[in-house]
Amino acid sequence: MSNVWSLWIVVLTITNIVLLLWVLLANRKQAVVEDDQHDSHDEVKTTGHVYDGIEEYNNPLPRWWFYMFIGTIIYAAGYLIVYPGMGAYQGLSFGKNKAWTSASQLQAEQVQAQVQYETTFGEFAKTPIPELANNVDAMKMGSRLFLNNCAVCHGADASGNPGYPNLTDKDWLYGGSPERIKETITLGRKAMMPAWGAALGETNIANVVEFVLKRAGREHDKTKALLGEPVFAKNCAVCHGADGKGNQQVGAPNLTDDVWLYGGEPQELRQTLRNGRNGVMPAHEQMLKPERIHLLAAYVYSLSHEDAAQ
């Protein structure tokens, strides 16, 4: 800090304290007139402010309130002597707190926190995810990480919401192995379901949906499903597979089960096919350290494995 700025802070701080003290003392000159002490010649002055028939007396602060303010000023003066607050002045020396600054205290606390961090998350990071998923203490910490970072989309119970996958079943868009779960949390995911409305038209969209319903073993229109099969093979099989069972490498869902991310009713399927889907799983690489991601991945892994600790 330059000498000019240091002097400016000192002058500004002292001036403010002196002005506050002057305001307090100046308004203390008029004594409060108690009801049992004044006679008919005494007159209680008002400020002239009147609201709804109520006048404001021009009395000073009560003594206890006045002395409380005086106490805060004395405390402020003592604080500025002991701790830095007057420009480049470093404060008095008190053993370990010599030349104390908020930055030095923060750094000391960060060092202490890092030691504690390494003794907890550091040890968990060395444990394989399937094994870590059976550690009760680790899963308690993982649960808190999940609630703080994931529950807003996937729900507190991880059962998902429309557009946000259920993490408690065994149906995975991008794979449920420990490595794939960690990759998803770290790098995020971006849905790649294109809109087919303009390319296919409403008739073909309706036919493809009936074919998808047929593959899922649900009630469907047989005639439309038959017409939709070649359209599916030409336009959809490249991602979802000829058998419609999906491709976890690109996040194409299995269309032969009864798990539907955006709803499985015919009108919902037509909307998905017509307009596409652009769901985004945000990357947590910058928000969470690798050790926390490892622990969070273990917790997510445990949700769909009945033998894991809960």
What does this structure look like?
- By secondary structure, this protein is mostly helical.
- The protein has helices at about 5-25, 65-80, 100-125, 130, 135-150, 150-155, 180-185, 195-215, 220-235, 235-240, 265-275, 290-305; strands spanning about 45-50, 55, 190, 280.
- Strand 1 (about 45-50) and strand 2 form a beta hairpin.
- Helix 8 (about 195-215) crosses helix 9 and helix 8 packs antiparallel against helix 11.
- The model has no long low-confidence stretch (mean pLDDT about 90).
Short structural summary:
By secondary structure, this protein is mainly alpha-helical. It has 3 domains: 3-97, no CATH class; 117-190 and 282-303, Cytochrome Bc1 Complex, Chain D, domain 2 (Orthogonal Bundle), CATH 1.10.760.10; 197-278, Cytochrome c-like domain (Cytochrome Bc1 Complex, Chain D, domain 2), CATH 1.10.760.10. The chain has helices at residues 3-26, 63-82, 102-125, 129-132, 136-149, 151-154, 178-187, 197-215, 222-235, 237-240, 266-275, 290-303, and strands spanning 46-51, 54-57, 189-190, 280-281.
Write the layout of secondary structure elements.
Blueprint: H1 3-26, E1 46-51, E2 54-57, H2 63-82, H3 102-125, H4 129-132, H5 136-149, H6 151-154, H7 178-187, E3 189-190, H8 197-215, H9 222-235, H10 237-240, H11 266-275, E4 280-281, H12 290-303
Antiparallel strand pairs: 1-2, 3-4
Helix content: 40-55%
* Beta-strand residue fraction: under 5%
- How far apart, in Å, are the first and last alpha carbons? 54 Å
Mean pLDDT: 89
CATH superfamily of the largest domain: Cytochrome c-like domain
List how many beta strands DSSP finds.
Answer: 4
Write the element-wise H/E pattern from the N-terminal end onward. Answer: HEEHHHHHHEHHHHEH
CATH architecture title of the largest domain: Orthogonal Bundle
* Helix-and-strand structural type: mainly alpha
Radius of gyration: 35 Å
Overall number of domains: 3
CATH fold type of the largest domain: Cytochrome Bc1 Complex, Chain D, domain 2
Question: What form results from the Cα inertia axes?
Answer: elongated
- The CATH first-level class of the largest domain comes to Mainly Alpha
- Which strand order spans the largest sheet, edge to edge or round the barrel? 1-2
Q: What are the low-pLDDT stretches, counting only 5+ consecutive residues below 50?
A: none
Reported for the largest beta sheet, the result is:
2 strands, antiparallel
For this entry, what is the oligomeric state of its chains?
A: single chain
